[in-house]
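Marked as duplicate of an earlier ticket. Keeping the data here for the record.
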Amino acid sequence: MSELKGIHDGHRQRMIEKVLNNCQSMPDHELLEVLLFGAIPRKNTNETAHLLLSRFGSIQNVLEAEQLALESVEGIGRSTAGYLILIGQLIKRISEQKVKPALVKNLADVKEYLIEKFLNETEEKFYLLMLNSKYKVLSTVEFTDKMSDQVSASMSDVGKMIAIFKPAFVIIAHNHTSGVAKPSELDDIATKKVNLACLLHGASLIDHVIFANNDTYSYRNEGALEKIKNDTNVK
């Protein structure tokens, strides 16, 4: 029994690695097989995937099928049918949302994208916006800290996020709880550090925006970012 379990575990690990490395080339039955890992944890799901595709004709039809129709396939019980129906509903809702990708190109866009995140905040928040070459937001990472009026997010964490998402452009933003948007010396130092992290990973820092009540400060618009980029020394 333990030997059989080891064989199944090894096969599952190989299939997961295949998904991570080259899922685009995987045939439909393999994709469905891996999907079923989440619902049928201790069984070879390859045969079940083939049966589902044979019965319904396509992955789309499998994920749109009714409970009783799914349960008519050998190896599919109530919980697995519910799992497949859930996946189908998630895909349907994603396709119906059709949300326009957020584009952040200038200070006005940054304000519109982030202003609600800073409203009525009593502690400092720091956001890292990572954009692709067309200024679409790839990810927005939030850092929080109880220190006021300065950026104190871990630069190692910032560098890690940039390395993971590989953005073309980066914007950083934080708030001053004092109500004054003017940058501090520590803000300048943090900007230099983020700029260096961007350079190390092939990205470009295009702004650092400070929010304070109804006031904002843009390093880019004030010319401070250009000066910092010309000074690569970090204190």
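See parent ticket for discussion. Residues 2-22 form the longest helix (21 residues).
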